[in-house]
Specification:
The longest helix has 17 residues. The model has no long low-confidence stretch (mean pLDDT 87). By secondary structure, this protein is α/β, with parallel strands linked by helices. The chain has two domains: 238 residues, P-loop containing nucleotide triphosphate hydrolases (Rossmann fold, 3-Layer(aba) Sandwich); 102 residues, no CATH class.
């Protein structure tokens, strides 16, 4: 199943927005607080609730409406909109996800896929209404948050189950996926090659033992806690491939893949995303990184130079604040097709500042050398 279109009205920071997605890689750029992470979390919440829902028995406690409400609250973590003594359905905080304005109103979400659609309303009193479900059962959906989870896994799941942690549920879901047993049987050739590539980057294989993760190589093992955070991200990808949580025809949401990665690993991640997409995974990425966005754009711009098996569609979205329309959206199949690019704009501004400083005499140039008489 591929996500094809999303229409939003009065949802979070979006007063009115429409997105038409690529079946391959979708890259979202924009300043902070323009809704990139909220967009990924909304799509993930819908797919994950649909994945777990019992659609055969409308009265089931695991019906789609119940699970969707629970997932939205667990992923977005809004405060309740009513006092504690109010009915439970009014304390779940869903109304906090409606676009902020005076008076009561409602937000509308409409998701279309190549295998059906789903729509619903959220009201400011905190209700989910008018749920229209025509979605098919999807392949797995996976969300990778900006902070890595490999080192935090030890004790995290148990503490989260006891409600001792305030992390949003994307971290909990990822920890469960990381701890899944390695899949048996033959691998698709594309994912098998990707697994080998990650093993070469890590210099070993990832194992789960005694509630902790380790990387094993010819010299022994190293605890995940002793790996750099960037390498832990690569190790987590390796583990997700081992368990086939990153499956063909699944959907991957990755918030800021570049966090804590040096530039060399950022280029590795761009190739990983490309190989996952060409293996059939639909990808949604939110990024602030110049190198990652430019690497992906170059792949898209020079698509014909890629081997046939590594050609995939991409779409770039720039989200920016507009005083009248709230959040405005630009889209293009490459970065140069966007009129606005805050990442490039800031790099250009930095270059101008640097040139301005180079043009001025350096304060240290007039200082006496050590031992020189003044």
């Amino acid at each position: 199943m591929k996500l094809t279109k999303l229409c939003l009205e009065k949802f979070c920071v979006f007063q009115k927005a429409q997105f038409e997605f690529s079946p391959g890689i979708n890259i979202f750029i924009g300043a902070n607080a323009t809704g990139k992470s909220h967009l990924l979390k909304l799509l993930y919440s819908i797919l994950k609730a649909n994945e777990k829902a019992d659609k055969t028995t409308p009265t089931s406690p695991n019906n789609l409406e119940t699970l969707l409400k629970q997932k939205l609250v667990s992923v977005f973590r809004p405060d309740p909109v009513r006092p504690e003594e109010a009915p439970r359905e009014q304390t779940e905080g869903l109304g906090r996800l409606v676009y902020r304005m005076k008076g009561r109103t409602s937000g509308h979400v409409d998701l279309t896929t190549d295998e059906g659609s789903l729509s619903f309303r959220l009201t400011t009193p905190g209700r989910l209404a008018d749920l229209q479900d025509a979605l098919q059962k999807p392949e797995s959906a996976l969300f990778i948050p900006s902070r890595e989870c490999l080192a935090m896994y030890d004790g995290f799941v148990a503490a989260y189950d006891k409600r001792e942690l305030s992390f949003d549920e994307t971290y909990y879901d990822l920890c469960l996926a990381l701890s899944a047993s390695p899949a048996r049987g033959p691998w698709p050739s594309s994912l098998s090659q990707l697994n080998s590539d990650l093993e070469n980057v890590l210099g070993g294989r990832v194992h789960f033992s005694g509630g902790r993760f380790y990387v094993y190589n010819d010299d022994g093992f190293i605890e995940a806690h002793m790996l750099s955070e960037g390498m832990r991200k690569i190790a987590a990808l390796f583990r997700l491939l081992q368990s086939q949580s990153l499956t063909q025809n699944g959907v991957l949401f990755w918030d800021e893949p570049e966090a804590n990665l040096n530039p060399k690993l950022v280029t590795v991640v761009s190739r990983i995303l490309l190989k996952l997409a060409t293996a059939g995974v639909q990808i949604f990425v939110a990024t602030h990184d110049y190198l990652l966005s430019q690497e992906l754009s170059l792949i898209a711009e020079y698509r014909d130079l890629q081997p046939e098996e590594l050609r995939c569609d991409m779409r770039f979205f720039c989200l920016s604040r507009d005083t009248e329309a709230g959040i405005s959206i630009e889209k293009g199949d490459t970065l140069p097709q966007l009129r606005h690019n805050p990442i490039v704009d800031e790099f250009a501004a930095h270059y101008d500042r640097e040139r301005g400083l180079f043009a001025r005499p350096h304060p240290a140039s007039n200082a006496p050398l050590a031992g020189q008489a003044t």
